[in-house]
Write a structure and sequence with these properties.
The complex is a heterodimer of chains A (469) and B (75). By secondary structure, chain A is α/β, with parallel strands linked by helices. Chain A has helices at residues 34-42, 45-51, 91-110, 150-166, 184-190, 199-214, 223-231, 238-253, 267-270, 275-292, 308-312, 325-337, 382-388, 393-403, 417-423, 435-443, and strands at residues 4-6, 16-21, 24-30, 58-60, 71-77, 113-115, 123-126, 129-132, 138-140, 297-300, 318-322, 343-347, 373-378, 404-411, 446-453, 460-466. The two termini of chain A are 30 Å apart. Classes of the chains: A alpha/beta (469), B mainly alpha (75).
């Protein structure tokens, strides 16, 4: 099938799948989903959700199908500039995604439909707002049915948010290990005793976990199996289902996190840049971005997004990566407060970036696989990679060459006070960490188009293009 | 969310301990979760009704329930 690839992450749902045809993304609606898809479109639910900006819009498409025998329809959804994953989101991003999921479910119920799954991976961010990208997540609501994704919602959203709020913000990274959300018994064990005093967490995590363990025994012909059978058939009335959703909404709303005190969240208050040097650097970055005119940009070590915004405010879809969840949280809150478009803050440790995950390591792409991006930016970053993390300059250059076509990168020399700070507690084993060594390493893979000294400092800003592009 | 508010309806949970529903979705909801959901919705619905009537009673005595538990949200 020339030019056609089924996207590896869409294999679980028998109702359809996503595929690429000549680089354009399409979704096939399988024939078994005909009734639900028609109901979604005809009931007014699709219109309500897309108007509210809660679901990705689509149009009918006329392209060949990779599996024509199953096809009912092929649709072309609006493309999301960058696909991100829950383990890359800050606290408020995960919380916003949770609230969007519950709101979508409430609106669906009003249209006689229900979400059949509540995966955090079905939510993406566009213009600082969460939206559902899985058009086939709905099925007809039948009065009396329970909410099937209840456990999944608790695992994907409530448990990680509770752990981040009650224990440590870095526990959001556990979503990388548990691709179907944090198991509730595990979350229950990790949460402090005082979390049990919060009624919503007691109900939806602690007691829920106990019930899963108690009824998890699948052996037939036991007393438990008989009891389970006896219990089957009980209905969940619509009003009761709404009470469940409302309770989950309160549970999510009651969790909070204050981003402060980390090294990076307070970075711009502690940096040794003078105002003049800062302005000069910003002007240089702006000029270099204008010269590259990229169609997308990734800013590595973006902190709270001050320099990322130079790109995003010009309409360039920009991802602002940073290792510090507090800085990313601040960045996202600013995006929301200013209703910003084109900027997506994400948590990423460049020394151990998001790997490929899931079945055959193909379900969730690594950061590198989601590239290459047109342009990358690495300001005040290289000394952390080369000196704090002992990565040789050649390897740093190789990484950037694998993710971008052009690069704005700042070299921070050894005599800079920030580098001196890093070296103050360790032996200097970096004889090659010089401007010449930097230019040699990067010059092997990039053409250096321009380099300028940042006034008021010994730092140098480079504009480079990957050799051969 | 105040725990005391739920105390009367917690009793409802105790007397409703007999439930579950078959699972036939593509997503496995987990037997324990479905059984548990059917249990707690009775409790949660009773709690919601309790809150509703309590607000009415307070209204009768001129004490409007202007308090909101929902914080200003980043969304």
């Amino acid at each position: 099938m020339a030019g056609m690839t089924i996207v590896a992450s869409s294999f679980r749902d028998p109702d359809g799948f996503v595929f690429l045809h000549d680089g354009v993304l399409y979704r096939q609606v399988n024939d078994r989903c005909r009734a639900d898809y028609t109901r979604l479109m005809d009931s007014g639910l699709y219109g309500a959700l897309t108007t509210a900006g809660l679901m990705v819009a689509h149009e009918d498409a006329d392209v060949p199908s990779p599996q024509p025998d199953k096809a009912f329809r092929i649709i072309k959804p609006e493309r999301i500039p960058f696909i991100s994953f829950p383990y890359e989101w800050s606290f408020s991003q995960l919380k916003a995604a949770a609230r969007a999921t519950l709101r979508i479910q409430e609106i669906a119920l009003r249209h006689g439909m229900t979400l059949k799954d509540a995966s955090a991976y079905n939510i993406q961010f566009r213009n600082s707002k969460p939206l559902l990208i899985d058009t086939l997540s709905f099925e007809e609501y039948k009065e009396g049915e329970p909410w099937i994704p209840y456990r999944q919602f608790c695992q994907h959203f409530l448990a990680p948010l509770a752990l981040m709020a009650f224990v440590d913000i870095r526990l959001g990274l556990m979503l990388r290990d548990f691709i179907d959300g944090i198991p509730l018994d595990f979350a229950s064990k990790l949460l402090p005793v005082r979390s049990r005093l919060k009624m919503s967490l007691l109900i939806h995590i602690h007691l829920h976990a106990r019930s899963l363990t108690k009824y998890g025994d699948s052996r037939p012909d036991t007393e438990l199996a008989a009891k389970k059978k006896k219990m089957s058939g009980r209905k969940v009335k619509l009003q009761a289902l709404r009470a469940l959703l409302s309770s989950l909404s309160s549970a999510i709303g009651g969790l909070s996190y204050k981003p402060e005190g980390t090294e990076w969240a307070d970075y711009y208050d502690n940096t040794n840049y003078s105002d003049g040097a800062f302005q000069d650097k910003a002007a240089l970055v702006k000029e270099f971005i204008a010269r590259m005119a990229p169609d997308s940009l990734w800013d590595f070590g973006g902190n709270t997004g001050v320099f990322s915004r130079i790109a995003s405010e010009q309409g360039i879809p920009t991802v602002s990566f940073d290792i510090d969840p507090a800085a990313v949280e601040k960045n996202y809150r600013d995006c929301v407060a200013r209703r910003e478009s084109n900027l997506l803050p994400l948590v990423l440790d460049l020394t151990n970036p998001s790997p490929a995950l899931g079945w055959q390591n193909e379900e969730r792409e690594s950061v590198v696989q989601r590239g290459p991006v047109d342009a990358a930016m690495a300001l005040a970053l290289i000394h952390h990679l080369a000196i704090s993390n002992n990565v040789p300059l050649e390897k740093i250059a190789r990484f950037f060459a694998s993710v971008c076509r052009s690069l704005i990168i700042e070299f921070v020399p050894k005599n800079d006070s920030q580098v001196q700070r890093l070296l103050s507690s360790r032996e200097d084993i970096f004889p090659d960490y010089t401007r010449e060594g930097f230019e040699r390493a990067f010059g092997a893979l990039f053409s250096i188009i321009d380099s300028r000294e940042v006034s008021g400092s010994d730092r140098v800003l480079y504009l480079m293009a990957k050799a051969g592009t | 969310m105040k725990s005391s508010r739920y105390f009367p309806v917690f009793l409802a949970l105790v007397v409703t301990l007999t439930v579950s529903v078959p699972a036939y979705a593509y997503l496995d909801p987990g037997t324990g979760s479905v059984i548990y959901q059917a249990l707690i919705v009775a409790f949660l619905a009773a709690a919601a009704a309790g809150r509703f009537w309590w607000a009415k009673v307070k209204g009768l005595f001129g004490r409007g329930s202007s308090q909101s538990t929902d914080e200003t949200e980043v969304e």
